[in-house]
Each structure stands twice: as C-alpha cells, then as structure tokens.
Amino acid sequence: MHRFSCPADPDHPLPRIEDFRFNDALDVIDYACLEGMFHWRTWSEVWHLDDSGSLTCYAKLSSFSGIRDYATDPWPFHEMRRTGLEQGGCGTRWLINEPRFTRMRRTPPNEGDVRAFQRLRRILADIGVDLVDCMLWSDEFRCWSLHELTSGTTRWAPPAAA
Q: Is residue 39 part of a domain?
C-alpha cells in the first residue's frame, strides 16, 4: 500500500499526461500527486500505453464494476482491443486504475482481487495485451498495485522484443 497526496496549491495547473512515461506503479502515483483528481473519480479507467510508457489512448469503464467483474466477464476489454485494432491500433500495455472508495463500502484489496488480476492478465495475453497492473485508489489517499502484490515489485516488465 502506498500513500499519495493532492497538490499543495489547489490552483496549480494540471500536468499534461502526454509529458509522462508510465513504466512503474510509482510513476502513476507521482502523476496522481500532481494531477490531484484520482481520489474523486468514481469510474475505472484503462490506460493504453506504448512501449515507452506513453499514454496512447484510454477508456472509461463503469463506476459499478471492478477487477473481479472484468475477470469474470472480460467483454469490455475484448471490445476495446477489437476497436483499437480496427482503428489502427493503440498501445498493447494496459493499466487499470480502479477506485476503491471507503464511502462506497468497497474493501481494500484481498486475495480475490489478486486472483482476478492474474486471471484477467492471462485472458488479455491471449488477445495480445499485456495487463501491466491494476491500481486501486482510495478516497483516503491510499493506493495498491496488484502487480506489486503478485510480483513484489512496482516496476513493470519491459515490453517483449518483437
């Protein structure tokens, strides 16, 4: 579990996400500390990253679903992949940012979340997607990396050589 904070200056300019490279869960936490809105989002997002860690595109998901739901019914991810390929492709390294708010009575991550992450990772690998992480964000400024919980490191593996 990691802690993050909001920017000290509430009038600070929002950082341009295009200027960041995400190759580690800590990179996302650093961005969240500058961006300041992660603790307010109620919906999950899937960021599609290129091999350098640049955001190529993203998708918003339901506020009512999470990693466990997607591991059981990965249809939205199959649809994202199909659409991305039809439109000329997008990054093949995907990151899920999921809210885990205490005010919504959602619990901190546990073994069920870890199993769901591992299952969804295998499902997406079959369609050419590397699910690098699923990061769970709390309204109490806490963050968990399911990749870190399963591997012991926040660093994501470099993309496989083509």
A: yes
Q: Are strands 93-99 and 130-137 parallel, antiparallel or unpaired?
A: parallel
Q: Beta strand pairing status for 142-145 and 2-3?
A: antiparallel
pLDDT digits (tens, 9 = 90+) for 97-154: 998 876 655 677 889 999 999 999 999 999 999 999 999 988 888 899 999 999 999 9
Which residue stretches of 25-130 are H helix?
A: 25-35, 67-72, 75-86, 111-125
Query: Number of helices (H) and strands (E), helices first, in the chain?
Result: 5, 6
Tell me phi and psi for residue 95, to 5 degrees.
Answer: -130, 130
Which of 67, 130, 133, 119 lies closest to 93, judged by CA?
130
Taking a C-beta distance cutoff of 8 angstroms, is the pair 23, 30 a contact? no
Q: Are 152 and 161 in contact (CB under 8 A)?
A: no
102 domain residue, yes or no: yes
Cα–Cα distance, 28 to 156 (Å, whole number): 12
CATH number at residue 137: 3.40.140.10
pLDDT band at 10 (very low <50, low <70, confident <90, very high): low
Task: Give the contacts of 11 (CB within 8 A, at least 6 positions apart).
Answer: none
107 DSSP 8-state letter:
P
Task: Quote the pTM value.
Answer: 0.90
